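Q: What does the assembly look like in three dimensions?
Context provided by user:
Components: two
Sequences:
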Amino acid sequence: MKNKKWKKIVQHTVMIVFTLIMIYPLVWMVSSSLKESSSVFVDAHSLIPEGWHFENYITGWKGFGGISFSTFFINSAIISVVATIGSILSSTLIAYGFARVKFAGKNIWFVCMMLTMMLPFEMVMIPQYIMFNKFNWIDTYLPLILPTFFGIPFFIFLIMQFIRTIPTELDEAAKIDGCNSFQIFYRIIVPLIVPAMMTSAIFSFYWRWDDFMGPLIYLSTPEKYPVSLALKLFSDPNSVTNWGAMFAMSTLSIVPIFVIFFLFQRYIVDGISTSGLKS
Amino acid sequence: MEPLKPARRKVKKDNRNTTGYLFISPFLLGFFTLTIFPILYSLYLSFTDYDLMGTPSWIGLDNYVRMFTDDPTFWKSMKVTFFYAGIAVPIRLVFALLVAMALNKIVEMVGLYRTLLYLPSVVGGSIAVSIMWRQLFGNDGAVNSILGALGLPTHSWLGDPDTAIWTLIVLYGWQFGSSMLIFLAGLRNIPKTYYEASSVDGAGPVKQFFIITIPLLTPVILFNTIMQVIQGFMAFTPSFVVTNGGPVNSTLLYVLYMYQRAFEYFDMGYASAMAWVMLVIIAIFTALIFKSSPHWVHYESDTK
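A: Here is the predicted structure of the complete assembly.
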């Protein structure tokens, strides 16, 4: 009996130490954002700042080149929200088509979709850039947003897996009541797959918010930069002097991700677990 | 097998076809315009010299020849990428599995541990994390500061070509969260009775790990491995932000070099050829993993 108790204490001690080491870098970033700029790298490992310099956040927010971080945050929000709406609307429609409608050639298209899921973006990055360049879409949000309206294979797959768990008897009953496929889709299926749509929406938001390569390639006017790109510019090792402000903006840039994570944790964890297993 | 009422069936089937294609039409539109066409266009470009001005001029296999015979930087980036993916991916997977197994054993506070350990991966893609990593391993960053406080020698982690790539590998390994969650779900699906039965037969934890846990997890291991290999080969942001390929190209990951070719030198043809070489390599790797899978992946339905 005593042995068991000791085992538990050891287990938890190991776990706690390990977890603390793992999250140390994140805590370090937040604590550095509160240190006085000149002292960030004096005793860099210490997590407790001497005095709480919240003014780092105010100076950081002023941004650079006359553009404040409000502009960058608004830009990020616009791109992320519109792209998320686009990917969820289209992915849900497509997922229903693949999961519930029988049509000629379905299997071939399904294989195509799965292959697209494994195809890295880097493969089509250059031709897409040339294409959007020809359309004069460079330095607009179109290349970042429009493609999401064609569905995201990972979300299509995830939502499909979810639809498969819904009994087909429901569809049959609705059909007898005179519903056509589209009515079945939005009256019966959509309300039932909200959790899967939520999971996809959360991931989509993360990816868009964090996206760096897309804006790096397509945007050239600083006023249009999202937070990710602005932060890279702001943190350029050759020009930064105000380290406290730089860490303050770094910290703020991940706040939306944290908030969404803590609000919707359950969906995310379930989403990852299920999508990974049933492939 | 010809049905008795062909006419009626046909009408009904056609109707379903229209409905099906309507639902998947966004996918089809995107597939042709944003995948198929760009891929074919990229193949064509890889045989041309094109700097975004004027029109691409056909130069045959020149890009490929130049790449393999006359570009040491290309080989360097290839070497760096293989080293990076070859070490970082196994580290992440082993780490993820070990942590998942530890979490699977613990009953109390498991939700809290899981959440905190998943956090690095949640924010992992963000630029803030790459910037933080750069400062953490910088000369006067926290890592050296800790070493100094412990009386250990400090080191110029990012300035030394031998250690710079390791900072990126550690960054990759640190974000083991989603693999961990997938492993954890897989572990939960293994019936407890298997372990009970085997311990009656006298199997210890190590033996159980190799005869029960690993075999039953192989489908999940397969999935994780393929996704991570592709991700590892395609990594860009960490090397761009943390080290920008340096020092002396020791962290020049393949995609970073491809990016430089395309968007700094505007060498679109050459960069497209690079993309194709990468695709072929990834395809070979994925095919090898899939081909080998019948030998090591066990699906429960097979064994019953």
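Follow-up: The longest strand of chain B covers residues 48-49.
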